[in-house]
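Structure in, sequence out. Go:
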């Protein structure tokens, strides 16, 4: 086992992790950053649509704050939201000064696009490759600093003594060795946990490790019942199911139609005859994601699928002919608001290419069949406005940290969130490290943990982790999805507990540390099973419907009893402790 001493360890090489490392270093802390991914290749590169920030004359911070709070159904941590919207402009300046130049109009002014739930056009973008452009800037900034980078390295344990961070144990899969990082602080920036679902937009290493590690060392989790399903994801070919079609398509005028060519979100009415969906800018497809996802899913439930997303004028005209769409449905669509071929290739170049490559589908000629898939975790590690947890020296930033988005996240608010949280976490952690000393750890504790990991090599005949993983994904997809109820949730809990027991019998063929992807995935599977349990317990607890959490048996918002957050932590004797806070 190698031993490394640094003031702070940053776990995660996405936008939040890189920004945390830059910020901690600039505030005079020595830092190392570890990531399962390759440097610069973390999940954040997949973000396409854009980053929200107040830059237009008709916009202001209070409006952005209000939209975010309404989008989150009022249970967001308002202090954190306020910090985020206030800092937006500075982050944009930071990025542009370092080469991330956002798309502009002919006069040279930044040209933001519309996104669901935002009352102003405030989603700044670099075509539809915004995450990549941001990551390139952060990567350059890291390389300019003396920051140690560990790629393909997975943290498996955080050590805490008297509720204070001591260090972390990681497996370096490149060199095939364990590393113990002795630290004063740790910033967890490990992203969400989309891989617990069968259909997800998230990349392979988004397995919620940081959320598990935080829980395991005694930190609190919050809002775990709120899981965002992105409305528009690919459904065919089957192996690409879940791949995201960016909200930018709807932001640029894309509409949703059912198998009859009906723009169902435009035609839907309340019992009193008023429109059921209004959406921002009077576009029903720009309702918040929870609402659009449920509307699409309901079309499938009543047999009106497949639902198609249409952005092209030509594609709409073709559909009208093919389906012989009646005037009643034709008047629901304003053809002038759809795009021509040139504009599609200019504004949505990645989506255009993605669809050609993955589905052999030309979006200038055809609609895209879509259905919701898991996309984002509103819940995660409970942090305050300094991004600090209830454990001294433990911070969290980005998608793994909770509070900003409440019950539902607005599109393009995540890229802003991860950068601001990273900035704050780094600064506050460095401040903390100046007034604290390294804690000693008993080596036996580390050895015990290493043995615990290696136990998996001792078994020659056991269960395949892949089978357990697949079963877990099926259960979460079918019983803890967009619509939940007590019966489904209780069944899911029972099944997940069974899988937890089976996971104790996992065996692997490859018994080396070096390059052992199976070991990484087996450990991830164990972590994910615990997160599933926490999620289901939170879902059972919240007996109302709010944002992304929809209960068929409690279909209404209950502000009288439920303007509360559910907080989960490790209780005594392996039990999960559930609390509610206003
Ligand atoms: P990530 O980028 O997920 O990085 C996590 C890092 O942690 C990775 O390096 C991973 O390897 C590492 N890690 C995990 N576990 C461990 C461990 N045990 N040990 C060591 N390292 C570990 N948001 C927007 O605001 N606008 C958009 O346009 C947008 N588009 C999106 C499009 C897609 C397809 C997807 C999937 C998401 C999109 N989002 C968007 C959401 C946004 O991209 C994410 O929420 C955000 O990038 C998360 O960043 P992060 O830094 O928190 O985590």
């Amino acid at each position: 086992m190698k031993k490394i001493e640094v003031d702070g360890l940053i776990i995660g090489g996405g936008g939040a992790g890189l920004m945390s490392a830059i910020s901690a270093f600039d505030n005079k802390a020595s830092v190392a950053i570890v990531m399962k991914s390759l440097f610069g290749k973390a999940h954040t590169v997949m973000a396409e649509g854009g980053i929200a920030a107040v830059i237009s004359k008709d916009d202001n911070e209070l409006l952005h704050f209000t939209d975010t709070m309404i989008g989150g159904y009022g249970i967001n941590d308002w202090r954190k939201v306020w910090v985020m919207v206030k800092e937006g402009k500075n982050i944009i300046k930071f990025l542009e000064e370092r080469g991330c130049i956002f798309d502009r109009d002919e006069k040279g002014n930044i040209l933001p696009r519309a996104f669901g739930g935002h009352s102003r056009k405030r989603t700044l973008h670099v075509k539809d490759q915004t995450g990549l452009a941001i990551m390139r800037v952060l990567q350059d900034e890291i390389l300019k600093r003396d920051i140690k980078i560990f790629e393909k390295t997975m943290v498996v344990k955080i050590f805490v003594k008297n509720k204070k961070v001591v260090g972390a144990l990681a497996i370096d899969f490149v060199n095939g060795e364990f590393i113990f990082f002795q630290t004063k602080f740790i910033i967890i920036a490990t992203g969400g946990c989309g891989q617990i679902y069968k259909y997800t937009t998230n990349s392979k290493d988004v397995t919620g490790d940081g959320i598990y590690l935080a829980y395991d060392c005694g930190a609190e989790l919050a809002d775990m019942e709120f899981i965002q399903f992105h409305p528009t994801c690919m459904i065919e070919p089957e192996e690409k199911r879940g791949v995201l079609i960016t909200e930018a398509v709807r932001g640029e005028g894309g509409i949703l139609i059912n198998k009859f060519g009906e723009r169902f979100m435009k035609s839907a009415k309340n019992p009193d005859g008023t429109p059921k969906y209004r959406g921002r800018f009077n576009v029903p497809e720009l309702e918040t994601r929870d609402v659009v996802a449920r509307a699409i899913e309901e079309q499938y439930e009543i047999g009106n699928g497949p639902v198609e997303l249409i952005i092209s004028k030509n594609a709409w005209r073709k559909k009208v002919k093919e389906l012989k769409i009646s005037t009643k449905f034709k008047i629901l669509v304003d053809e002038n608001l759809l795009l021509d071929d040139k504009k599609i290739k200019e504004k949505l170049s990645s989506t255009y290419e993605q669809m050609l490559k993955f589905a052999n589908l030309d979006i200038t000629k055809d609609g895209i069949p879509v259905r919701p898939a898991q996309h984002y975790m509103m819940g995660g590690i409970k942090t305050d406005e300094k991004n600090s947890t209830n454990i001294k020296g433990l911070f969290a930033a980005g998608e793994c940290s909770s509070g900003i988005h409440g019950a539902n996240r607005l599109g393009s608010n995540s890229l802003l969130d991860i950068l601001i949280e990273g900035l704050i976490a780094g600064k506050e952690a460095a401040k903390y490290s100046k007034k604290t000393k390294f804690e000693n750890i008993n080596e036996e504790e580390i050895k015990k943990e290493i043995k615990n990991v290696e136990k998996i090599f001792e078994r020659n005949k056991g269960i395949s982790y892949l089978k357990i993983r697949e079963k877990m994904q099926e259960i979460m997809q079918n019983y803890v999805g967009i619509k939940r109820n007590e019966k489904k949730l209780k069944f899911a809990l029972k099944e997940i507990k069974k899988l937890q027991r089976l996971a104790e019998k996992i065996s692997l063929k490859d018994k080396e540390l070096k390059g052992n992807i199976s070991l990484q995935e087996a450990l991830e599977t164990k972590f994910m099973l615990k997160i599933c349990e926490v999620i289901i317990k939170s879902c059972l607890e919240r007996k109302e419907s709010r944002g992304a959490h929809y209960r068929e048996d409690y279909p209404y918002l209950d502000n009288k009893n439920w303007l509360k957050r559910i907080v989960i932590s490790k209780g005594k004797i392996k039990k999960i402790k559930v609390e509610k806070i206003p």
